[in-house]
Amino acid sequence: MRKVSSHAHRKPIKVALLGCGTVGTEVVRLLTDQAPDLTARIGAPVELAGIAVRRPNKHREVPAELLTTDAEALVASDDVDVVVEVIGGIEPARSLLLTALRSGKSVVTANKALLAEHSADLFEASDASGADLYFEAAVAGAIPLLRPLRESLAGDRITRVMGIVNGTTNFILSGMDSTGASYAETLEEATRLGYAEADPTADVDGFDAASKAAILASLAFHSRVTAADVHREGIAAVSAADIAAAKGLGRIVKLLAICERVSVDAGDGSGASEGISVRVHPAMIPRSHPLASVHGAFNAVFVEADAAGEMMFYGQGAGGAPTASAVLGDLVAVARNRVHSGRGPRESAYAGLPVRPMGQTPTRYHISLDVADRAGVLSQVAAVFAEHDVSIAAVRQEGRVDDASLVIVTHAATDAALRSTVDKIGGLPVVREVVSVMRVEGEE
Amino acid sequence: MRKVSSHAHRKPIKVALLGCGTVGTEVVRLLTDQAPDLTARIGAPVELAGIAVRRPNKHREVPAELLTTDAEALVASDDVDVVVEVIGGIEPARSLLLTALRSGKSVVTANKALLAEHSADLFEASDASGADLYFEAAVAGAIPLLRPLRESLAGDRITRVMGIVNGTTNFILSGMDSTGASYAETLEEATRLGYAEADPTADVDGFDAASKAAILASLAFHSRVTAADVHREGIAAVSAADIAAAKGLGRIVKLLAICERVSVDAGDGSGASEGISVRVHPAMIPRSHPLASVHGAFNAVFVEADAAGEMMFYGQGAGGAPTASAVLGDLVAVARNRVHSGRGPRESAYAGLPVRPMGQTPTRYHISLDVADRAGVLSQVAAVFAEHDVSIAAVRQEGRVDDASLVIVTHAATDAALRSTVDKIGGLPVVREVVSVMRVEGEE
């Protein structure tokens, strides 16, 4: 058995921490509490060289002598081997990490927005100097997900990644499902309980999930995908009627980040070509689907690969300690690479698959209509579907003269064809109101 | 974007495949089908140098010119960089892999029995030569699990790993739960459907799960644990009465592999000391627990860590293609390490935590008794619990004169105290029969 102390004489790995909020504070705590274990696992001790913050007097929980307001000087210091970034946002994080990578310093970051927008620059700098760039904490917090996608499944062909990657919206949708309350009421409750920020835009409009989807799609399909490539719809338009309609069909509404291989025939005679669909939108999934029972602030990601089949990864997607756990895992990896002169996996965007526009993406719709209940309604509605080449999977007609409803679930068709169908149906005189339109996922 | 072809000039990584059964055949297929992708991901092409089998004429699905019966010569060949072992069993696998590692060849193996018994020799040989030793496929098939434990959670403190890691026993217990049939009937059905082998001993007696538990405990707790250290109970003694008792309490019986940190006070005045419990036995878990809904031949592993909190990994635990996916993931990693002169993580047994005997392990029991229904039974039974310092969490008494039952769920106590309690209760004149005794897990 090796002893912890046998590594004490090795040159320590010096770490610069950028940012010291909820996650940063936990990183400092874990570095201190687990020091002997980290030393044994890495083969050398890890030491904090400095912590860059904006207002040093606000951080009484970390050693004062480590605090600095000069992040540039800290990152440029010869005394630093690894830069850990938990500031978030694009600048100054981007410039600081480029400086670090260019000078050969390893980088660990939890910054999803930065990775989703500027991964090309960062990977280029990492490739040029040979410095490691790790970012497990950027997606799904503590859940080991990027390492499995990048490494464990590197010998397989991933066909789909579908997940609940935003805790705030999952908390709100879970709440709407269990209480039947409106979106506005449930958001208010989530804000009061601290599950939603005062300005919830990044979460409820799907920006946060879209950044994560871009990162997941890049890794899963070995292609370069940025946040701007992601079709994005938030949950603000999800109504109590949508939630009730899903319940009536044994389904539940979730905000999903979906990355999948799609084969598209542009119809120009060139045949079908392979591409990827990357999107974030609310969708109904069967209550028996493994993702359906992921409630509250938890995250879960469902992965399908040709040989491995279906897999699911589940855990805490946010929070100081869980995110810090993922950061520390990466820190051990890059520090070990420095001790053993190794290198982590590089960016692999060799496949260069094109991202298909949402209109070309095959999907399925659930449509609930308030209709005039008289003979011929169904035939008029069905004619519109046929006209758009959309095939109907199931129909349910209910009610009497003044309160009739028609619920339709389609087979897969392109999103564009489905949208045109819904638009035209909404204009039929026999249709009083389009009550709910929602995509359907998680079933074939 | 890098092109696949740009790597074609790199020196190929030569692979020797040992064994060509269900998994080996899939490995050959994936190596062929995914060749361009593997080349791009590794940075060099992968080529099969040879396939060692016992009866070459039985393998028409792989190229005949690659087949050989001389595994020793294949492993010793200068033309081989990586040895992939899917023979299973201890010998000749052990000798072949030691030869490979000692000569600096990287090893990928799916051999759980070998890892669980001889990991010390293998890791020593790997350390001495600097050759990689990867074995993701040895536990839970396609589910990325060992890499997350070894790497993603390397900065955290894992406190428990609890999982369903044997598909055959899970299929049988799922069947007993849904039909109410006996163990013998359900095993017969599983054998007929091909879910159980003709000789099911390795599965139903828990040997397979125990090997996996030893591997998981070693990685999670940075300690050396072998199959012989694992307390093992199979499912042959699980009765229809046990299954029914669990159902009546909102629980379900699963065969669990459990690895957890335990703090034990030996009672000699030296205070509590840290150790680990590693065990495989049937247990009742609440139907609301994430592991409860893992049915049929699927595997799932629940992990708890101090900072990361609760996580679950779910997927296919066996089968040719899923296992081959895990083997290929490791093959990409070791091949990439050869191209980039890197090295995978070493064995880390620095913590050297002792494995506690089952008797010292804190656990909880469910006990169902057939009793004489008269005043004083409960007080006599309760007195035996008190005498052994076992605290009762819940009691349910049912029935009339001739058919009375008493169901007791305990608080945590050592397994030894619980066993003594049950033995003594079984001897009380007022107790007609001990109907069911089952450990309770997954709740605090």
TrEMBL record, chains A, B:
<keyword id="KW-0791">Threonine biosynthesis</keyword>
<comment type="similarity">
    <text>Belongs to the homoserine dehydrogenase family.</text>
</comment>
<dbReference type="InterPro" id="IPR005106">
    <property type="entry name" value="Asp/hSer_DH_NAD-bd"/>
</dbReference>
<keyword id="KW-0521">NADP</keyword>
<feature type="domain" description="ACT">
    <location>
        <begin position="366"/>
        <end position="439"/>
    </location>
</feature>
<dbReference type="InterPro" id="IPR002912">
    <property type="entry name" value="ACT_dom"/>
</dbReference>
<dbReference type="Pfam" id="PF03447">
    <property type="entry name" value="NAD_binding_3"/>
</dbReference>
<comment type="pathway">
    <text>Amino-acid biosynthesis; L-methionine biosynthesis via de novo pathway; L-homoserine from L-aspartate: step 3/3.</text>
</comment>
<dbReference type="InterPro" id="IPR019811">
    <property type="entry name" value="HDH_CS"/>
</dbReference>
<keyword id="KW-0486">Methionine biosynthesis</keyword>
<dbReference type="Pfam" id="PF00742">
    <property type="entry name" value="Homoserine_dh"/>
</dbReference>
<keyword id="KW-0028">Amino-acid biosynthesis</keyword>
<protein>
    <recommendedName>
        <fullName>Homoserine dehydrogenase</fullName>
        <ecNumber>1.1.1.3</ecNumber>
    </recommendedName>
</protein>
<comment type="pathway">
    <text>Amino-acid biosynthesis; L-threonine biosynthesis; L-threonine from L-aspartate: step 3/5.</text>
</comment>
<dbReference type="InterPro" id="IPR045865">
    <property type="entry name" value="ACT-like_dom_sf"/>
</dbReference>
<dbReference type="GO" id="GO:0004412">
    <property type="term" value="F:homoserine dehydrogenase activity"/>
</dbReference>
<keyword id="KW-0915">Sodium</keyword>
<dbReference type="InterPro" id="IPR016204">
    <property type="entry name" value="HDH"/>
</dbReference>
<keyword id="KW-0560">Oxidoreductase</keyword>
<dbReference type="InterPro" id="IPR001342">
    <property type="entry name" value="HDH_cat"/>
</dbReference>
<dbReference type="Pfam" id="PF01842">
    <property type="entry name" value="ACT"/>
</dbReference>
<comment type="function">
    <text>Catalyzes the conversion of L-aspartate-beta-semialdehyde (L-Asa) to L-homoserine (L-Hse), the third step in the biosynthesis of threonine and methionine from aspartate.</text>
</comment>
<dbReference type="InterPro" id="IPR036291">
    <property type="entry name" value="NAD(P)-bd_dom_sf"/>
</dbReference>
